[in-house]
Design a protein that fits this description.
The complex is a heterodimer of chains A (499) and B (98). By secondary structure, chain A is mainly α. Chain A is built from 20 helices and two strands. The two termini of chain A are 27 Å apart. In chain B, 80% of the residues lie in helices and 0% in strands. Chain A binds chain B through residues 136, 139-140, 143, 147, 150-151, 154, 157, 160-161, 163-168, 170-171, 174-175, 178, 181-182, 184-186, 188-189, 192-194, 234, 237-239, 241-242, and chain B through 7, 14, 17-18, 21, 27, 30-31, 34, 37-38, 40-41, 44-45, 48, 51-53, 55-56, 58-59, 62-63, 66, 69-70, 73-74, 77-78, 80-81, 83-85, 93, 95-98.
Chain lengths: 499, 98
């Protein structure tokens, strides 16, 4: 179904998933304007928001099923399999986070159902960011996502840590978007275009000027902040620790996924002609991110901080596939993001259930003896740790395998070796979690009696853990889907030449 | 008109903003420096719009809108911090330490 993106009707059709979700966020916002008294209103708002994600996913699936593609140039928003797969990934993460939040918020005494519309608007921003075909859409999507997530990070405003996390995230995030915006301005100055395809055609036709190179560098710096690559990572552990736990899961999986999907698209469509310039930068970022992330994670005692540093290391692994700059690399990014988000959602879901109301974050010592009291939760968390480690038989292994082979096929051998070393180091902080839960005895008899694992969260975590195991041994469907999708990103032929 | 000087001025303003964010320790001043960065970029867009047509000027409207939304959220966050610490000095924001 060809869609003419320059006409209002065509643009509406192309933006259907985002529009549906925005509309539904406003509906939920109207509902909570009158119903914000107690836990029942919180649960209703959460349920309504999940309905919104299902509608948006249905709209995405409809566009994909009708084979929507742009007629002529793709203005503002992309219409290809990569965007639909990105939307599906981001919607699933948001829905899982909403399910995890439902009872957790009530137990923590956060009775503000505006949480759910905010989460939906953040998801709209992520979808626009990942689907942008124009630097204006890219910037707006990034900001819609970021501003919503600033609010969500500080949502537990009675806790000082949450407010501090929000302030840090806000100042660093705004600082980073300043860099990205200056990069956009210089790229516009060098080419006179905002559209990805037109800029790419300009760079392919004429050698890049100094302004273009500076613009690309600044855009990369902006993205490096968002994906928390070393040396632009200092904010991440603090923000991840201070934010409410479901939001930490959202930032570690959703925000990172959206930024990576946008980075892959920008490098594939805007800067393919400058590949020799950005590859060394990605190489350096990947190597230093993997090493620093893994080494710093070793010395952490707080589980949230440990997972924050491990999230930094995983961003480093993902940069391998970005370096590859190929269809295999794109497919590997999609597969790895799915594997990583499934694992992170399950791990943070279990950690959130262990947290007590108003208490400090869960430490490694708090998990001791969990197996004897809560066998299923501890088995689930163990499987998550093994998947993050990349243990064979889990989905994490498949994801990592594809990242490494994508980089190897693109002719890179140093980075996969560094990634293997990093994985070996990561045994040193994933395995103690498993050992503490199974081998060590519980500290006191009352330990683990305060764990509350409500049924919605239990179902969501159960599905995630099951998916980790199932896709770890039977990944073919997902692999084929990701490969077919990834091919479409670089397939888009430019229908008209540059002005 | 004045393309080179405008670009140079906006680059200087941007660097001033970056330096301010890195050096100053008051949350509101840091936020003002971020705004200075965004407005420096706006000047770049306006200057480049002379070469490339109206789309650069349209981008400025989006940037101003985003900056306004960011200011609303940012000042609310700074207010929330002030309620906890009675200060907006970033050296007092030390509960979370790497």
């Amino acid at each position: 179904m060809p869609i003419d993106l320059s006409s209002p009707g065509g643009a509406t059709l192309a933006l259907l998933p985002e529009l549906v979700l925005t509309f539904w966020a406003l509906v939920v916002l109207m509902y909570v304007a009158w119903h914000h008294r107690d836990g029942h209103d919180m649960r209703t708002a959460g349920g309504l928001s999940i309905v919104g994600y299902i509608f948006a996913a249905a709209a995405t699936a409809w566009l994909a099923w009708r084979g929507a593609r742009p007629e002529g140039l793709s203005f503002m928003i992309a219409l290809d399999g990569f965007r639909f797969a990105s939307d599906a990934l981001l919607l699933w993460i948001a829905a899982a986070v909403a399910i995890l939040s439902v009872r957790w918020l009530i137990r923590q005494g956060i009775l503000a159902p505006e949480y759910y519309p905010m989460l939906m608007l953040a998801t709209v921003g992520m979808m626009l960011l990942a689907g942008a075909a124009d630097l204006i859409t890219l910037f707006l999507g990034l900001e819609v996502m970021s501003i919503s997530v600033y609010v969500l990070a500080g949502f537990d405003r009675t806790r000082r840590a949450s407010a501090e996390a929000a302030l840090k995230y806000f100042l660093i995030g705004a600082f980073a978007s300043g860099f990205l915006l200056y990069g956009i301005a210089l790229t516009y100055g060098a080419t006179g275009q905002f559209n990805f395809d037109l800029i790419g055609a300009q760079f392919a036709a004429t050698p890049p000027t100094l302004m273009a190179k500076l613009g690309m560098g600044l855009i990369l710096v902006g993205f490096a902040f968002k994906i928390a690559a070393v040396p632009f990572h200092a904010w991440a552990p603090d923000v991840y620790e201070g934010a409410p736990t479901p939001i930490t899961a959202f930032m570690a999986s959703g925000v990172k996924a959206a930024a990576f999907l946008a980075l892959v698209r920008v490098l594939a469509e805007v800067f393919p002609a400058l590949v020799d310039l950005w590859r060394p930068v990605i190489f350096g970022l990947a190597a230093i991110t993997i090493l620093v992330g893994n080494l710093t994670a070793l010395s952490q005692t707080s589980m949230k901080r440990m997972l924050a540093y491990s999230a930094i290391a995983h961003a480093g692994y993902l940069l391998l596939a970005v370096w590859a700059h190929s269809d295999e690399g794109t497919a590997a990014v999609l597969i790895y993001l799915l594997a990583y988000s499934v694992t992170i959602v399950a791990a943070f879901g279990i950690l959130a259930s262990i947290e007590r109301a108003g208490a400090r974050t869960v430490r490694l010592t708090d998990l001791e003896g969990l197996f004897s009291v809560r066998p299923f939760a501890s088995i689930g968390l163990s499987i998550c740790m093994l998947s993050l480690l990349g243990f064979p038989g889990t989905f994490g292994f498949i994801g990592k395998w594809y990242l490494l082979s994508a980089a190897l096929r693109a002719g890179q051998t140093t980075l996969p070796v560094i990634a293997m070393v990093g994985s070996a180091i990561s045994i040193g902080y994933y395995l103690p979690v498993v050992l503490a839960m199974t081998l060590k005895p519980a500290r006191t008899r009352q330990a683990h009696q305060t764990i509350r694992f409500p049924r919605p969260a239990r179902i969501a975590v159960g599905i995630c853990v099951f998916a980790i195991l199932l896709l770890g041994v039977w990944p073919n469907t997902v692999l084929n889907f990701a490969t077919q999708t990834a091919v479409q990103l670089r397939q888009s032929e430019l229908p008209i030449g540059p002005r | 008109m004045l393309l080179g000087p405008s670009l140079a001025l906006s680059a200087v303003l941007f660097v001033l903003g970056v330096a301010g964010v890195l050096i100053r320790r008051n949350a509101i001043v840091v936020f003002m420096c971020v705004e200075l960065m965004l407005n420096a970029v706006n000047l770049t867009f306006i200057a480049l719009a002379q070469l490339h047509g109206v789309s650069g000027q349209i981008m400025v409207f989006f940037v101003m809108t985003v900056a306004a939304a960011e200011a609303a959220v940012g000042l609310a966050i700074i207010l929330a911090i002030f309620r906890h610490t009675q200060s907006v000095d970033l050296t007092h924001i030390n509960l979370l330490r790497g």
